[in-house]
Amino acid sequence: MAAELTTAIVLRTIEFSETSLVVHLLTRDFGQLAALAKGARRPKSSFEGSLDLLAVCRVVLIRKSSDALDLLTEAKLQRRFRGAEKSLQRLYAGYYVAEMLRLLTDNHDPHPALYDAAIDALGQIDGTGNPAATLLGFEAAALRLLGHAPTTRQCADCGNTVPRDRRMPFAPIAGGVVCPQCRSRQVSIVNVAVATVEQLEQLLAPHTRQPVTVSASVYAELRGLLNRYIQAILGTMPRMQPFLPARMEPDA
Ligand SMILES: [Zn+2]
């Protein structure tokens, strides 16, 4: 099989043998995949320490057709993730991005725009961006690009326009805001301020780019809402979710 060249974010590494690693990558051109990096644990390997969590690399892969692991033959470091050097909050934010990418995307299903959004978010997180706001912007972009965007105007159940009251019922399992007629049918409802729904709508807009701005007064409610919505989509709670910022520090 021919070798293929792409860029990738390292999402996870697992020790495979004395000398090798299995590396989970989000590649820009081939989506998520797991590849065997032979000899990567040797002190003087050709990977030269490029396979750290959240590192961005130029990689050469030999793709395997069946369920077998792809083979990683080369990885050249483009950018190392330095969140850990700055704060625990930035480190956890980075871990959360990696976990979201692993849980939300399928193997060999490329989403170049999501890859680019992740690169932008990681740049903010290990740079000077606000990690709490950056994550909300990244999650909104990921949900939109993967076809999981919650409804903010139309009832997620019947499709009618939902009146903009001071607080609006949001049904995570149905997939967004719901109208008064459908409300009683929902398994679970979160009542959120209209300002929170409007902030979410802004973050979901296709033209939104990092760095995003999020109003501190709606942050906690929006964080809680997205937590529940993402749990509903995944059917499980992401491991890093309890470590996300509960409040938005002006300068985290
Ligand atoms: Zn309805």
Automatic annotation (TrEMBL):
Record-annotated DNA replication/recombination mediator RecO N-terminal domain positions: 1-78
Positions of transmembrane segments: none
Leader peptide range in chain numbering: none
Protein name: DNA repair protein RecO
InterPro entries attached to this UniProt entry: ARFGAP/RecO, DNA_rep/recomb_RecO_N, NA-bd_OB-fold, RecO, RecO_C
Sequence similarity: Belongs to the RecO family.
Gene: recO
HAMAP family assigned: RecO
Superkingdom of origin organism: Bacteria
One Pfam family in the UniProt entry: RecO_N
Role played: Involved in DNA repair and RecF pathway recombination.
Keywords of this entry: DNA damage, DNA recombination, DNA repair
